[in-house]
Amino acid sequence: MLNFHRFFAILHARNLEFMRDRAALSWNMAFPILVMIGFASIFSGGEQEYFKVGVMGAGEHPFLQSRYIHFIPVEGQQGLAEAITKVERHQIDLLLQLEPTHRYWINSDSAKGYAVEQILRASGGDEVVRQEVSGEEIRYIDWVIPGVLGMNMMFSALFGIGFVIVRYRKNGVLKRFKGTPVTTLEFISAQIISRLLMIVSMALLVYLTCDLLLDFAMYGSYLALFVVLVLGGFSLICLGLIIAARITSDEVASGLVNLLGMPMMILSGVWFSLEGSPQWVLYVAQIFPLTHIVDAARAVMLDGAGIIAIAPQLLILGGMSALFLLLGVWLFRWE
Questions:
Q1: Are residues 116 and 229 in the same domain?
Q2: Where a domain ends, among 101, 118, 133?
Q3: In a domain, 226, yes or no
């Protein structure tokens, strides 16, 4: 049974401990803002060095032999609709359909799309039907911001839960808690809620600051984005709880956090799109909660998706949270 008086006492103490750690508090806010400002400065007005073209169908065309073009397979009607949206948003430069009909989609406002269209026509594309679309360009900073927010949440959750509980165990704090009426449920619940409040508060503060400085795209509902932040943060905290369940060494905890964090940061689409990657990479990416957080946040911010549209990612995050929490509680030891 949860005693709310003891629960709120531990929660209050943990929040005060975090707020008094000025270095950690400043770093949690400053790091993602500096990263995003840096990327905005580096990539503003700059173009990527190669073109991206979506290809639907298995037909042959001389255009497919062109060099310096990254061809991305597109499958199914849903894939076609998503690819057309990416042409509108300047995320791919041209979409070519080879069967059942020969046609292509091009954004009339895209300079790179114009260049790719000339290559297509020069390679025998006069017989391909032209479909023109239009839409605002999605800057790289618009695309990367959901990933940076998710990455900051990930490290805050893994280090915040993992290191704090390991430090408590190493310093004998947990041993003293064991001699009090505080239960495992009360202690773990207070740690999770405290870290979740900090993560969501920092994410909202970083979001508002960066929006003021960079004026990035937001096409969806703020409520949907808030749900993604809360459920995603909870899932990552529960993952961090597994790390902290029994470990007594800071070095081991640091190694495990990096062992989990680095693959997630690389394979979850934080810095670059995984489109066109080998199939096994896409499968591996699905086991990480950060992948579903970033995908859902990008769908809300860039595609205007609502709660129903991102329901698959939310359900996966909910299932992962339950699994991680059960494992963390089962493995947890005071000493």
A1: no
A2: 133
A3: yes
Q: What does DSSP say about strands 94-97 and 129-133: parallel, antiparallel, or unpaired?
A: unpaired
Paired sense of beta strands 69-74 and 103-107, if any: unpaired
Segment 186-243, tens digit of pLDDT: 888 888 888 888 888 888 888 888 778 777 778 888 999 999 999 999 999 988 888 8
* Confidence (pLDDT) at 48: 47
At 175, the pLDDT band (50, 70, 90 cuts) reads confident
**Which residue type occupies 234?**
F
Residue 179 φ then ψ, to 5°: -85, 5
Residue 124, pLDDT score: 74
**pTM summary value:** 0.69
- 311, two tokens: 């329901």
Give Cβ neighbours of residue 143 (< 8 Å, ≥ 6 apart): 91, 273, 298, 302
46 — phi, psi (to 5°)? Answer: -90, 145
Q: Does 235 share its domain with 313? A: yes
Residue-range definition of the domain harbouring residue 119: 51-133
Total tally of structural domains belonging to the chain: 2
46 domain residue, yes or no: no
**What is the distance in angstroms between the CA of the first residue and the CA of the last residue of the chain?**
22
| pLDDT score of 206 | 80
| CA 41/CA 62 separation, integer angstroms | 38
